[in-house]
Design goal:
Blueprint lengths: L2 H31 L5 H20 L2 H15 L3 H24 L1 H12 L3 H14 L3 H16 L4 H24 L4 H26 L15 H33 L3 H37 L3 H37 L3 H9 L1 H23 L3 H22 L5 H27 L1
């Protein structure tokens, strides 16, 4: 195996393991509330989790922006900037978290206005929300630390932290629900406890493993306007790019819901195929962030381009493998996700679109990793805006003629447009 391949796999594997633990967190929560005696509890947890997933997704720039800038500074051996970026990211994360806590009621009301949960579910979700909102500080600090670790070519620490969070969440939720007799409050408390445990472990690893960098920590001037402007310039592009992605995903969900409960359920099940694929491919995207940023910052042009090429080779192999897997075992996978034969039947009708997703999405997902690494955030924003416009244009042009087929076609056009535009930007402006 080539040296570059070994570097990619070394960084990708821990990230893949870490990502695979993510759906476990949601599955455990659903399994616990699923035995509480009412479907209302499942609905409340589902709505509450969705609200926080979207909220934290919007602030994902804390991880992505920090990763790219840190890897470039590391490539230049600019260790004072490496430490400075960590301080800036953690400070911004805490500031955002404090804002979320202070503005929690307006945020909750806006979220409920968009989602529109039934009254009984809304009451339970409010309880869940008001507890989980206190997990914002550790979650956003962890975003900053995770991005910094990836930029430092270290994906093992995020993997360890993710595993710990899941274990603590399972144990704490079971304790609060079955020992303390709590309901939704117990699941929410388990989540918050796990978030603080993850942040505590992350900070502990930071202080132990990177104590050699203490000498570069200089508080004076860390937050001066000139230094913060670049931090916010990169992150503002990623922020608005994420807004575009959230808008498309929310509209996809809403458009499916307007076609009835069966279509909504089928689309939700089929989207799990895309999510599962993206969890695995993100490992290679994280490797691209770390290595491309490092080589770009060090101006090692040959190593940079070789890394881009090898990441694409590995990612295409993964995409082809998932496509074959879904063709061979996709129907079995659908039956595992639900035992409602009517839902499986409807999902099977739209199954070919979901099978096509890995090969259509792979280019955009890999370029995201490369662009984050070299902090080409404006290119990410431009591609996402254009892709969003294409998504709505295709769906509106269909005018309901194809129904849910038209919705899936628009989604595939969205993914393909992102990849195509980023390819053009890379070869015309960044190569």
């Amino acid at each position: 195996m080539r040296q570059r391949d070994r570097q990619i796999i070394r960084l990708a594997l821990p990230s893949i393991i870490s990502n695979i633990t993510v759906p476990l967190l949601g599955l455990v929560d659903v399994a616990i509330v699923g035995h509480m005696g009412s479907a209302l509890y499942i609905g409340a947890i589902s709505v509450g989790a969705m609200v926080f997933n979207i909220l934290y997704w919007v602030f994902g720039f804390l991880r992505m922006g920090t990763s790219g800038m840190t890897s470039q500074a590391l490539g230049k051996r600019d260790l004072p900037t490496v430490v400075q970026l960590l301080g800036q990211a953690v400070a911004v994360g805490l500031a955002v978290a404090l804002t979320i806590i202070v503005a929690q009621e307006p945020i909750r009301q806006i979220a409920f206005l968009i989602v529109g949960p039934e009254e009984d579910i809304a009451s339970l979700t409010t309880t869940y929300f008001r507890i989980c909102v206190w997990g914002a500080p550790p979650t956003l600090v962890l975003y900053a630390l995770t991005g910094w670790y990836i930029g430092m070519q270290n994906t093992r620490f995020p993997m360890m932290i993710s595993i710990l969070q899941n274990v603590v969440n399972i144990l704490a939720s079971l304790f609060f629900v079955y020992v303390c007799g709590m309901k939704v409050e117990g699941v929410a408390l388990g989540t918050v406890v796990a978030q603080y445990a993850g942040a505590l472990l992350s900070l502990s690893l930071l202080f132990v493993a990177y104590r050699r960098l203490y000498k570069y920590l200089v508080w004076k001037g860390m937050f001066e306007i000139r230094k913060m402007l670049r931090f916010f310039k990169v992150n503002s592009d990623i922020f608005f790019r994420t807004i575009c992605l959230v808008a498309v995903n929310l509209y996809f969900l809403a458009a499916g819901a307007r076609q009835g409960a069966l279509i909504l359920a089928a689309n939700t099940i089929l989207m799990q195929l895309y999510i599962l694929f993206s969890y695995v491919l993100d490992g290679f995207a994280f490797a691209a962030e770390a290595l491309c940023g490092k080589f770009y910052g060090a101006q090692h042009r040959e190593a940079f381009h070789e890394t881009v090429k090898r990441v694409f080779v590995w990612s295409m192999v993964i995409a082809l493998s998932f496509t074959v897997l879904y063709i061979v075992a996709g129907q079995w996978f659908l039956s595992i996700l639900t035992d409602e034969q009517e839902v499986v039947g409807v999902a099977s009708h739209y199954f070919p679109w979901a099978v096509a997703v890995p090969l259509v999405a792979v280019t955009a997902l890999v370029w995201d990793g490369v662009f984050i690494g070299i902090t080409a955030s404006r290119g990410m924003l431009v591609s996402s805006v254009l892709a969003m416009v294409v998504f709505f244009a295709v769906y509106i042009a269909d005018k309901g003629c194809m129904g849910n087929h038209g919705l899936w076609m628009a989604f595939l056009f969205f993914l393909a447009t992102r990849g195509c535009v980023q390819t053009v930007i890379f070869f015309r402006k960044l190569i």
